[in-house]
Design a protein that fits this description.
The protein is of the alpha+beta class and 755 residues long. The protein has 4 domains: 130 residues, no CATH class; 74 residues, Helix Hairpins; 137 residues, Heat Shock Protein 90 (2-Layer Sandwich), CATH 3.30.565; 202 residues, Nucleotidyltransferase, domain 5, CATH 3.30.420.10. It has 21 helices and 17 strands. It has a 5-stranded antiparallel beta sheet with strand order 2-1-5-4-3, with helices on both faces. Helix 3 packs parallel to helix 4 and helix 18 runs parallel beside helix 20. It is elongated. It starts with a helix and ends in a 9-residue tail after the last helix.
Length: 755
């Protein structure tokens, strides 16, 4: 029996206690009287009955209020204190019980706060000791993650089920570039922790490569690996090298330093642990717990090589016929020295025509492949001001020429071989000082379109055209530093040019190096910057606990901690979807292994094809200009659907957001059939005696800072943090599975709200 039912029973009992004696006494008195006495008693009592009833009713009301006050101060107050104590024990250690209510309750609250303070001190001390003990392990993990993140190749680590448990930034960028169609939209990518690698690579090729590795392991190979080339759904070619993640040794320690993980028996349950095979001497054979994929996109190089082969094939086929004609004409002339002049001229014309045709064909082949020849030298992205700073130090040290700067674009990145480029700039400075005795050199850095301009400016004298051409072709030797490269070689290496120009009005001249601009990485949107500033300096693209993960399906009887989630939120033009209001932004973030993956997000503005309500713009900050030209909901919803695949949806007041999504499902050709958890309902399950279940109130109770409120992605981040704090609290209440969480949510009052 809950507290409210006990209160109603107490009210009934109070009423009986107050009216019962009066009624019983009256009944006894009436029973002992005769007929005449009863009539006289009725005449005496009836006029006084309303007054007695009124007095009784007033007493009942006073008693009821007293009982209600006592219930609120003691019963309800203690229930609320119990919820807060559970918060202090679980989600928010800094939360404290308010000193409110009667003296006895306040004294109990004070004692509870004192105990909480002592517990916090003990937990802090224990946490410090655990942190010291884990420090070395965390350093190894972080060192591995840092190494992976800085590799120039794309690296992905998977468990045996193909679930991704580690990937570096290069792999993320590669696969994001591969994404076409809906997955390319606003952060939606093909890669993510817990996702399947088979959405990118062919399952059969992975299985075949694993079989080859197992065969090599069985033969005792010291470096078991496999290489294969595969194509993605978008037609891109990937060169892939696979290496196994092994578990060896009787103690279960892996030879590669990664944590051990149980392997499923073939044809058995995914949670069963297979015993590694043992050799004749009891030594355990290495067993595979996962694999590492090193991936390189070779599409462009393959296309370029194909073009080159075609050019060479055309050159070969065309030259063979031309050479045959020339050879036949020459042999005829040699064999017939007395041939008539007219016939001799005809043969000489054939030779001249075929030679000219061969010459043209060679020029066309050289021209069509010239760009590839220039770009075969590896270039890197260099910040322009860093390049000029290095050149300045070298010139001042080697040449002794002071350098100043003007008009530097400090955000310009250049695609360059920095060593040879600095050599070229130093060579020009040395020649200018040696031949023209200039006193000062100025650097200028600018860009126009896809080309960057590095200018070396000086005042006074002008360089003769003949001198400039001579410098362009001589080796770039400066003092003891010798190199066979020339200025022209450096320009061709970069696919650029060297210009000499004069500014007669300013009495200045300058050399201009024309270089390619580096492809800039996409800038982070302003609304995401605050969120990313709060995250770690290195993105968390790894989770070694996923080695043991097998089944990723959404089973209602699976534990909440074992599921993957997509926490989302929407911003809309208004509150009534049936009246024409539309979604103008969707934001979502993934949760895997109870970790909020801040880099695996979906964030997309949507053109609602209708005017925004003016009263809503100050709340969500989205204006007409921001949504104009953005994709429509029909294009965005399939992308969001793919982002949320194989995950449970989580939202705050999810009935509102889901109503908007459901009304657009038919037009977009998708259906969100996965389970949905609502943090509003879960808050009512956890804290039924709290007055507010608004997002800000829940965050305050759970000790979560609210940043980026009323943006779809910002609210998704806050909701995700709230949900992660709720999972252990639900577990303490005995709500451990998805089915139990859904059932408990449906019993709350707020579950009746419809949109």
């Amino acid at each position: 029996m809950n507290a409210r039912l006990r209160f109603l029973v107490a009210v009934v009992i109070l009423g009986l206690l107050m009216t019962g004696p009066f009624l019983i006494t009256a009944a006894i008195m009436v029973a002992d009287l005769g007929e005449g006495e009863r009539a006289m008693a009725a005449q005496l009592l009836l006029p006084r009955l309303p007054l007695g009833g009124l007095i009784t009713l007033m007493g009942f009301v006073v008693g009821l209020n007293v009982l209600r006050l006592l219930f609120k101060q003691y019963v309800h107050g203690l229930q609320k204190m119990g919820e807060i104590l559970r918060l202090m024990l679980g989600a928010n250690r800094n939360f404290r019980v308010e000193l409110d209510g009667p003296p006895e309750v306040r004294e109990l609250a004070r004692a509870a706060n004192d105990l909480a303070q002592q517990r916090d001190e003990l937990l802090t001390d224990v946490a410090a000791q655990i942190a010291r003990a884990k420090m070395s392990v965390e350093e190894e993990k972080n060192r591995l993650a840092a190494l992976m993140s800085e590799l120039a190749m794309g690296v992905v680590v998977c468990n045996l089920d193909g679930r991704i448990l580690l990937y570096n930034n290069r792999a993320r960028l590669q696969f994001k570039a591969l994404a076409q169609g809906p997955t390319s939209m606003s952060g939606g990518a093909l890669i993510g922790l817990g996702r399947s690698i088979f959405s990118i690579l062919e399952r059969g090729q992975i299985a075949h490569a694993l079989e080859n590795i197992q065969l090599r392991l069985a033969k005792g190979s010291a470096e078991p690996s496999a290489n294969f080339i595969t194509s993605t759904r978008s037609g891109q070619l990937l060169r892939t090298q696979m290496a196994p993640v092994l578990r060896t040794g009787a103690d279960g320690t892996e030879s590669n330093g990664l944590p051990p993980s149980p392997l499923p028996e073939e044809g058995g349950d995914s949670g069963s642990q297979a015993s590694p095979a043992q050799g004749d001497e009891g030594r355990r054979e290495p067993s595979i717990t996962g694999y590492v994929l090193i991936i390189e996109n070779i599409t462009k190089s393959f296309e370029r090589e194909t073009e080159r082969d075609q050019v060479l094939q055309q050159l070969t086929d065309g030259s063979r016929a031309a050479l045959g004609s020339i050879r036949a004409a020459v042999e005829t002339l040699l064999d017939n020295p007395d041939v008539e002049p007219e016939m001799c001229g005809r043969f000489l014309g054939i030779i001249s025509e075929e030679a000219l045709r061969m010459s043209r064909r060679l020029e066309e082949a050289t021209s069509s492949y010239a760009d590839a020849l220039k770009t075969r030298w590896p270039l890197e992205d260099v910040l322009g001001i860093d390049l000029l700073a290095a050149a300045q130090r070298r010139i001042e040290d080697k040449v002794g020429l002071p350098i100043k700067t003007e008009g530097l674009d400090d955000a310009l990145w250049i695609r360059a071989d920095s060593f040879s480029l600095i050599q070229a700039i130093t060579f020009l400075a040395a020649r200018l000082k040696e031949h023209y005795d200039i006193r000062e050199l100025r650097f200028r850095l600018s860009a126009e379109g896809s080309m960057a301009f590095v200018d070396l400016i000086w005042s006074g004298v002008h360089v003769a055209t003949e001198t400039y051409y001579a410098w362009e072709l001589e080796p770039m030797n400066v003092g003891a530093d010798a190199t066979p490269l020339t200025l022209r070689d450096v320009c061709e290496r970069h696919g650029g040019e060297l210009w000499y120009q004069r500014d007669k009005a300013a009495h200045r001249a300058f050399f201009r190096l024309v270089l390619p601009v580096a492809q800039a990485a996409p800038e982070m949107r302003p609304e995401l910057q605050s969120q990313h500033l709060r995250s770690d300096s290195r993105p968390e693209y790894y989770d070694f606990n996923l080695f043991a993960a097998r089944d990723a399906s959404i089973d209602l009887d699976r534990a909440l901690a074992d599921l993957a989630y997509s926490v989302f939120d929407t911003e809309t033009t208004g509150l009534d979807p049936s009246d024409g209001d539309e979604i103008i932004q969707i934001g979502a973030v993934r949760v895997v292994n109870l970790r909020l993956l801040r880099q695996e997000i979906f964030d997309q503005l949507i053109d609602p094809r209708r005017a925004l309500r003016p009263e809503g713009i100050p709340i969500h900050g989205i204006t007409e200009d921001m949504v104009r030209g953005q994709p429509t909901i029909d294009a965005v919803l399939p992308a969001f659907y793919e982002f949320c695949s194989e995950t449970v949806l989580v939202a705050h007041n999810a009935a509102f957001d889901m109503r908007f999504l459901e009304m657009k499902e038919a037009a977009a050709g998708v259906r969100f059939a996965q389970p949905v958890l609502d943090t509003l309902l879960l808050s009512a399950v956890l804290h039924p005696n709290q007055e507010s279940h608004r997002l800000e109130s829940i965050a305050e109770r759970l000790g979560i800072n609210v940043i980026g409120r009323h943006t779809a992605l910002g609210d998704a981040f806050v909701t995700g943090e709230i949900f992660l704090k709720m999972v252990p609290l639900l577990n303490d209440m005995g709500i451990r599975t998805l089915r139990e969480a859904l059932a408990a949510s449906e019993k709350t009052y707020y579950a009746r709200v419809k949109y």
